[in-house]
Amino acid sequence: MTTSQTPVEHLDVLVVGAGISGIGAGRYLKAEHPAKRFAILEARAASGGTWDLFRYPGIRSDSDLHTFGYEFKPWRDEQSIADAPRILSYLHETIDENGLAAHIRYHHRLVSAEWSSETARWVAEVERTDTGERLWLSASWLFAAGGYYRYDEGFTPHFEGRERFQGTIVHPQHWPEDLDYAGKRVLVIGSGATAVTLVPAMADTAAHVTMLQRTPTYVMPVPREDKFANLARKLLGDERGYALARRKNIAKQIGVWKFCQRFPKLARRLIRWANTKQLPPGYPVDEHFNPPYDPWDQRLCAVPNGDLFRAIRRGTASVVTDRIATFTERGVRLESGRELEADLIVTATGLNVQAFGGIELTVDGKPVVLKETLAYKGMMLSWVPNFAFAIGYTNSSWTLKVGLLCEHFCRLLSHMDEHGHDSCRPEPADPSMPTRPLLDFAAGYVQRAVDQLPRQGDRMPWLTSMSYHADVKRLRVDSVADSELRFSRAGVLA
């Protein structure tokens, strides 16, 4: 991109996305750099990101809100595994309490951005999604806070004969407000977090709900309410009770992940034992709840109060493990020859990964090819100045990592102000170091896009950490200055 357009406004930081990461980034900027001018661009008409976009039945978190919530704002609700309306209310409170509403610009989608080393600024092309108008802003920093999946479409694989089906087909990412499934036969295709949420939520009113999966997923019953956290809040107050519950749950998450990594066979047996206790006697556990991979090779699915298992025990839901041969007029025919009839088919088949909202980046006239870049500290890209991003943990609560990244970003801005720098860019001392995928995770939605994403190196600071305690030291305590982070002034490399 080369533009001769004159920016209508200059900002110190341009944050992209008004979901949980962007709202958090805005709060940290407001608290740590109150004099800096920033805006949060949101392509949609509302804030909240995932928690406003998805409207399917039962939508909820799969992490406890004492760690998924912000460190600076206590979670006061009795529910620990919380539904979307409660999370959205929490995010709206964060916006109001921190005066962020004036900084959020709805219907603004960042299309592209060009960096100039001469001026040490980004020129950003923005589309008004409500009018189609294009405008240009300049910014000293870009902060991509939109996560890593596409908001405009979910992933649906090709299904042979799909057009033959005479019922309704929906994807959870595009759930119609007026969809009536009461008394109907529902087939949910998928076995991930969305599927295990949908099945028990729909089973209360549908005639029957069947979850059709190609491969089983690890599913663990967890309490919807955290009794320890609720008691701590009553005894110690919101602030201290929340902090104590947060520390307990961080330790629990890390402990479970490490146990699964170190003792995968034992972890598998324990999960199977927990499943067997929840399912009817004689249920074929190994057929439907015994994945071929080890625990935490993919994310474990949590079911609050065992609601999925309860629906199976009641007979209002069932699980089928097989592959689809073709859609038929009345449902789907499986490779085994069995036909599953349905009035409504829900394709809970996953997401489309898209890095940084699909923004086209250019540095001094050269397009940035993401797959040729390396991630620096899991928050910047090699050779790309003044660009930061927020991607959370895959083995723990997303927001734990994002909060630390926002803190580190604010410390980096302070360091640059103190030393008179106006740009910085990561430069690997050994560009030929061995690399591996940025998201080293076996989930299908990651594997489909991994070749188009940035990569990580084999050592710090190019190795993306998934350790919260290591990141606390690295991002919160250690200096932001680094031999592989080069600072400069406009037009001059320092």
- CATH third-tier fold name of the largest domain: FAD/NAD(P)-binding domain
Indicate the percent of residues in helices.
25-40%
Structural class label: alpha/beta
Average pLDDT number: 91
CATH class of the largest domain: Alpha Beta
Short description:
The mean pLDDT is 91.
Task: Please name the defining characteristics of this protein.
single chain; 494 residues; alpha/beta; FAD/NAD(P)-binding domain; 2 domains; 9-stranded mixed β-sheet; 5-stranded parallel β-sheet; 13 helices; FAD-containing monooxygenase EthA; oxidoreductase; N,N-dimethylaniline monooxygenase activity; NADP
Description:
It is a single chain. With 494 residues, this protein is α/β, with parallel strands linked by helices. It has 2 domains: 10-151 and 352-493, FAD/NAD(P)-binding domain; 156-349, FAD/NAD(P)-binding domain (3-Layer(bba) Sandwich). Strands 1, 2, 3, 4, 5, 6, 19, 20 and 23 form a 9-stranded mixed beta sheet that branches. The longest helix has 25 residues, at 238-262. It is globular, with a radius of gyration of 24 Å. The two termini are 27 Å apart.
